[in-house]
# Entry
Amino acid sequence: MKYLLTIFLIFSSIGTYSQKIKLMHDEGKRKVDVFVGDKFFTSYRYPAELEKPFLFPVHAPNGSVVTRGYPLEPRKGERVDHPHHLGLWFNHGNVNGLDFWNNSSAIPANRKDRYGHIVVQKIVKAKSGKTGLLEVVSEWKDNKNNTVLTENTQYIFRVSKTGWMVDHIATLTATNGPVTITDNKEGMFAIRVDRAFEMPTKEALIFTDDKGNPTTVKATDNTGVTGMYVSSNGNKGDAVWGTRNKWVILSGTKDNVPISFAIFDHPKNPGFPAYSHARGYGLFSVNNLGQKSYDPKQEQVVYKLASGQSMKLMHRFYIQSGAELTPEEAEAIFNDFSKSY
# Structure
């Protein structure tokens, strides 16, 4: 009975609360700021000079920044690897053979033809209220500016009794002919986190993308590094990587405050439950469109969209401060998300 009461209280805390969510669109600066009451949550940014849109920075309800600053706003002591890990974003590593994930200013011009980029075409709606709604139309393009996919996305911002959340609902449509999305570990709904939420490590690590390009993550001082992953299938820490999960929590302490955030997959998504691309150095991602790239024993998955055909992907990002998110609470949030769409 006590367990059932706990679950009821968790469910009752997920609904929308009275704090108004305010969205402010600055077309000149190409961003939409999001506030919960008078507290800054995040900005949707779509700079013309960068390769994708993203949410940056992301704040916890207590005001702490949970995203890494580099490369936009570098902070002392943080890592400067993987410049394409920017805020909270959505893309994939192999769409018609184009790598949308790894593209950044670090790619030389003579190699850009192997990479894709995402261009925001229109902010359809930026609506404030008890629930905030941002609707965006973007195009996934090759280096010759040909559109491969059209992305119609809703960012739905909500407040619960315990935390803040954004639901990311993206519909990808093959625009100019068929599209093939090939099994790749580089995806898909992801955040690069502040140093406080990395996991402590004493060794340098080298990560290689599917083109054989290595990136070294150096060993550094672990002072203030407190991150720990917990997944829906019961794994913790580095063991979460390459496993399938309904949800994954990342918890740590920053500014002397315990903070937890989590990414939730949706049962209607292709590839559910998604593979976790969760690295101790601060990349936290879930990927519905990779399989063999995480587990060599699995078959390679290839998704084919005929011209005009669409694919929908739904994810939830949730964040709270003041207490760690428990697996029971995460399960209740997952159930709420599952029933919402």
